[in-house]
Amino acid sequence: MTSASILVLAPHPDDEVVGFSALIGRARVRGSRVAILTLTDGIPAAEVLWPWQRRGREERAERRQAEAAEAARLLDVDSLGILDIPSRRLKDKFQEARQAVAEVIERLRPDALWVPAYEGGHQDHDVASLLAAGFRSRLAVFEAPLYNFAHGRVNSQSFIDPDEDYTQSILVLTAAEREAKRRQLAAYASEAGNLDYVETEREGLRRQPSHDYSRPPHPGRCFYQRFQWVPFPHPRIDSITPEELCRAMGQLTGGGTPR
């Protein structure tokens, strides 16, 4: 999995640390150039927020941007910026995001593209997986597990199907790597309450398989559905179902699956 130049697609500011901290660190030690493109600003759209939160949305986005810059410094990578897309809206701005990724690939000519796995952790993660799959004819695409709710429990940095032969590599982090990851996570102070599920013991990476995006990634509830029992719309709760997301992704690809 050694590559001279790697482009990491982070659906939100902090995903580059959650899924790829030690992977990036080891790549940098090997001399690889690593760049990160963040696909959304990590904040829900204004109309999703409580009325009293809407005026402060831009300030929150700017704070996440500053945190991402600090995380990039700690990771020793090139930050390519953050697209002007709200969280949970990547599917709605798919073509815009895809064009941005295509332009970066054309300019940087990376050997490998790293992206979160298709695992139902967050709708933007799954859409990012679909987006990356569309570039597999141009460069090697690898995926990393971040978090999922397979088997009815929270799983961190674990592939849903670990026994499948996708040439996966599981890294056991050293004490120094665990400490570095904790420092990088701490750079996202605004997200401290949302990152307590992140483990620092291991990370994984494998060649992205040909996912069937017309079907949910696993049976049962997905990670983002855990609090959908709340009987009213809440800014912190994504109301989409896996079936709705799969239909939306099918429309993005004309009903086909990227190969």
TrEMBL record:
UniProt GO molecular function: hydrolase activity, acting on carbon-nitrogen (but not peptide) bonds, in linear amides
Gene3D superfamilies (UniProt xref): LmbE-like
Domain of life, source organism: Bacteria
InterPro entries, sorted: GlcNAc_PI_deacetylase-related, LmbE-like_dom_sf
Pfam families for this protein: PIG-L
Protein name: GlcNAc-PI de-N-acetylase
Native organism: Paramagnetospirillum marisnigri
Lineage: Bacteria, Pseudomonadati, Pseudomonadota, Alphaproteobacteria, Rhodospirillales
